[in-house]
Amino acid sequence: TYQGTHKPLISLSTFDRVQIALSSKRSGTNTTKHRFELRDYLVCGSCGCKITAEKQKGHTYYRCTKGKGMDACANKKYTREEALKMQVSQILSRIEISEEIVIALRDDAKALQDEELKGVHEQKRQAKRNASAAQAKRDKLLEGFLAGVVSAEDYKRKSTELENLQTTFELEARKLSEVKSATFEQVETLARAASSARIAYESGDMDAKREILSNVVSNLVLLDGRIVSYQLKEPFCFLEKGDNGELIHEWWAQ
Q: Which of 34, 87, 110, 212 is least surrounded by CB atoms within 10 angstroms?
């Protein structure tokens, strides 16, 4: 058997589910459909295939699906779910920022927001001033035309130019009025979500746990019973702490 290079028609997880269903039919038994907390989030550190889960003697174990063949994977170990959950908690603890950092993040975000909105407001005021100046020139041009100082041809040409210019400035002012940025309240909510993610994960039900995993982490790589690498999704990755509790990214406020 050789590993193909063509694009698969179905996903590996779909293939696994079909095999389970076929196995159940062949054995003439009805298998209970189990939901597993960490399935779909783990990949094998040896061969890159998905990690699946199964119940054995009242416990949940995770193992490689060995989708590339038995000989292609050196990851032979079955890992208990309890051990993996402890490791996930340790990962989530890396964004468990303190109340002091939450407040600092909120205050810095508010300062950035105020500075940004101050610049936007000034640009909008300038656009409105430019639009008013264009309108004033159009009014003066009309007076000259009515007084016979400006020819009809010059009036039509110049009036069209000023009208287009005025419309451009008015549109610019309207767009600037619609400018929105993430408010500092939203930033504080995000920071508090990060600070409580570990506790929420440990105390939540199956759906809550999987939602936290979906929102916060990706690419959990399992090798010999250990999660050897992972990725924190944005923006949680910007709040990750080092081993000494300090924030890894100095530009986290932005």
A: 34
Going by pLDDT thresholds of 50, 70 and 90, the confidence category of residue 254 is low
The C-alpha atoms of residue 47 and residue 72 are separated, in whole angstroms, by 6
- How far is 237 from 249, CA to CA, in rounded Å? 9
Residue 172 CB contacts under 8 Å (≥ 6 apart), including other chains: 123, 127
pLDDT tens across 39-54, in order?
Answer: 889 999 999 999 999 9
Tell me the C-alpha to C-alpha distance, in Å, between residue 37 and each of 15, 89, 97, 201, 210.
Answer: 20, 13, 25, 11, 6
Laid out side by side, the sheet with 226-232 consists of 42-44, 217-223, 226-232
CA distance 198 to 195: 8
CA atoms 5, 229, 101, 209: torsion sign: positive
pTM of the model: 0.60
pLDDT at 108: 84
pLDDT class for 82, splitting at 50, 70, 90? very high
